[in-house]
Design goal:
globular; TIM Barrel; 10 helices; DNA polymerase, domain 1; 8 strands; alpha/beta; 8-stranded mixed sheet
Length: 271
């Protein structure tokens, strides 16, 4: 089955601009027939998105994007897993609790830098279970501390000092993969270039992930170079993996340069 799809999107359940229902409506208007909602470290928005998809005539895939602890920006996408009391749901609760603890650390860190913001305002903006750095970035912009979200990250929220001092819970990659698989889901490696690994190290990592249950690599992504995309396609051939793709859409206020994708992908293996 080939369909116009976007398999990597975010909602207000994590750090996106639109509610799950609003995102589904936007995806329908964009001409998509399949949408995966892959919020960071939470599955909280899945049921709302699927109900909205049924009402809109759009197929919605329950998804998640988990943060692995071994490397910066090491993200594991999960798709089409069971709802309910699963090991994945319990893992996501650990992630939620870790982010909840971190929000106080972020406020303290920013105050040390002369940035005084109200946590209640950040929580109101977030509107969901997950409070993430983009929510803090938007409040920094709102109060004139920075001009853009990107500047907020570069100056405060993604510096070496911030990463060293402000930590949160992350699971190891094997735990992430196995939690998704144990819930009956499929697993894809998200945007590999963001880890900054040399090709040989990435090749070895993909081989290890395949042994643990990896099903696919995100081969189509708006910020890949042609060389990166070609390398990921070769890796799927070498390890007999499927190919996924998506926009990593968060909304115009969060990532103004990223629009929803409309990729023509073979999804027989996933649906």
């Amino acid at each position: 089955m080939s369909a116009r799809c976007d398999l990597h999107t975010h909602t207000t359940a994590s750090d996106g601009q639109y509610t799950p229902g609003e995102l589904v409506k936007k995806a329908k208007g964009h001409g998509l027939s399949i949408l995966a909602v892959t919020d960071h470290d939470t599955i909280a928005g899945g049921s709302e998105a699927m109900a909205a998809g049924k009402a809109q005539g759009l197929r919605v895939i329950r998804g998640v994007e988990l943060s692995a602890k071994e490397r910066k920006n090491f993200h594991i996408l999960g798709y089409n897993f069971k709802d309910g009391d699963t090991e994945l749901a319990r893992l996501c609760e650990k992630f939620r609790a870790g982010r909840d603890e971190r929000k106080y650390k972020i406020v303290d860190f920013l105050r040390e830098k002369g940035v005084d913001i109200d946590l209640a305002e950040v929580e109101e903006l977030a509107g969901g279970d997950v409070i993430a750095r983009p929510h803090f970035a938007q409040v920094l912009v709102r109060h004139g501390y920075t001009a853009t979200n990107r500047e907020a990250f570069d100056r405060y929220l993604d510096t070496e000092e911030f990463r060293r001092r402000v930590k949160r819970f992350k699971a190891d990659a094997r735990t992430c993969v196995e939690a998704i698989k144990s819930a009956g889901g499929s697993v894809s490696l998200a945007h590999p270039y963001q880890m900054g690994l040399p090709d040989g190290e990435l090749d070895a990592l993909v081989g290890q992930l395949k042994d643990w249950g990896l099903d696919a690599i995100e081969c189509y992504y708006p910020r890949y170079t042609p060389e990166q995309q070609e390398f990921y396609l070769r890796l799927t051939e070498k390890y007999r993996l499927h190919r996924t793709g998506g926009s990593d859409f968060h909304g115009e206020m969060v990532k103004p340069d990223i629009e929803l994708a409309a990729l023509d992908l073979d999804l027989d293996w996933l649906l």
